[in-house]
Amino acid sequence: MSAAATCAVHRAYCVKIGFMRVNSLWQRNIAGRLAFTPAFRLYSVQSQFPSPTRTHSQPQHIESRAETELKEFFKRVPWPTTRQEERTLVASVGTVIWEGQNGARDKRKRAEEREEAKRRKIENGEDVVIPIYATEFSKEDIENEERRPKKKVALMIGYSGTGYYGMQLIEDKPTIEGELFSALVAAGAVSKANATDPKKSSFIRCARTDKGVHAAGNVVSLKMIIEDSDIVEKINSHLSPQIRVWGLEPTAKSFSCYQMCDSRVYEYLLPTHCLLPPHPSTYLGKKIVELAEQAGDLDAVNARQEEVAGYWNQVDEEYIKPILESAPEDIRNIIQQSLFSTDSAPQDLENEDVPQVQTADKPAEEAAQSEGMDAARESKSDEPFVMDPRQKLILDTTKAIKAAYMKARRSYRAPASRIARLQEALDRYVGTPNFYNYTIQKTFKDPSAKRHIKSFNVNPTPVVINGTEWLSLKVHGQSFMMHQIRKMVAMAALVVRCGCHPDRIKDSYGPDRIAIPKAPGLGLLLERPIFDSYNAKAASLGRGPVHFERFTKEMDEFKQREIYDRIFREEEQTAAFGNFFNHIDHFQTNFFLYCTSGGIAAAKLISAPGGTQAAATGGEKAGNDSGRALAQVESEDEGALPTNGEEEG
Predict the structure, then answer these.
(1) Where are the domains of the chain?
(2) How far is it, in rounded angstroms, from Cα 449 to Cα 487?
(3) Domain 272-304+412-516+587-634 = CATH 3.30.70
């Protein structure tokens, strides 16, 4: 063995021995020793590693909040001499190690800190604002309430998410869980003693859904009072028509609907006009042709767009040309420039009109000047504004053209070949790929970004509702991350509408970071969670299954009335899908060009470790700009986002 190899083996052995010694030292402390032994053997092991050189340089270190708190602890306690001090030190060190890496742990700690702060306020006699979902009873009411036995149950529910800030409890905003918990208390299913805190009833959701997202079937597990034979009817009487409890099933005490769920089935309703190509005059429409010509791929792109070739030219001739011809020449020239003279230069997002936080060090003169201008604007705005005839004509013509394009979109009917192209794209999701590009706050090397998709199918028979043709997409997966399904739908639609090869979806699983927008939330609904493994075990123990089969009729009626009709009505009123893709088509940035013949290289932001070095150039600016791009394209306020890309379910 060479000297270098011998040294490497010796170093590895020393590391192993060092960790064993530290571990045994910790075990002795747990056994009863109150003070740490300062002679950490690991220090001598670390000193054997090469010191940083030009080749082994270390990145600049920015002190975290946890490190600052640890230093403050050491100012107070030079070294622990009691068991409590020892525990505090161990917890602080653990926080330093895992801060920013363990979202679930950080979330638990924040929740514990909030509860502790609330407890201190109560002890000090301070006013505490209780969450909107909590019901407060007097001490006398709680003491006089009859104690009734509680059972662990699986509560099967359905809801329309319109108007709610998602499934998950939020202290100051209406959510599905918040309204459900209040109804459980009002119906007597949760005792008065537990009426302010769902955790006291072991309240757990099976699948989290975003703001505005619906569920025909979801499950909540909790301990509740089920003595009343009509308890389900009582709960429903305290709920809005948008939320229904289908039924309940008593379970084992250890049952957790989140942990016991094998898989979930989601449905996404997509208008077929989302499969139309970008208008040839848009930035994306021009780039598709330009990059296809550069790559010698134009014939292949045209072949994939065969069934929609010339669609927009026909629309311009039949719908738009008559409107333009009816306008005066000066008005027509302005409108035509707006429609057909899109600058092909990429948009500089750094100078975009993005809301900025005013800094504290802004000069007083500048602030005063700004305030004066604002006041002048306000005084001017008090005067009624009257448009001159040309301005009004421009506005009226613009509205007419926008309405004509919207009418053309809604009248589109997708042929079977176009729907088959969408299915080809969806097939690329099946398996266990790395979906880190399809969520938030995940890295390429994060093992949790790999998710198993069992199937992703589009119903080949579309339905026409209120003049718009719709497709039903259903995805069956083990679990999903934040925004994953909506980003999968958006990516598949972009691939089809841009005439891109469906294998581009496979390219998105690689180390290069790309900006995938999320499709509108109004089309997504959780159809049902599946508990096959639990049900098989429950059957062997004589327990009932957790499933939705016996509620099929009620669920279908509810889906049609409260979910489907709402989706169709909201799309008719807001044109959310048309506006979403229209914004992408006109957005002058390269971030969405991965769906062209330029491939991932035309749009990548920054490579993950192991990716190409070129992609890392300007990576920080690219990341910031992509965030602005997605924020503007999606134009949705999601509220507070979960830490570390928390799972949807």
Answers:
(1) 1-28+37-48, 272-304+412-516+587-634, 310-347+390-410
(2) 14
(3) yes
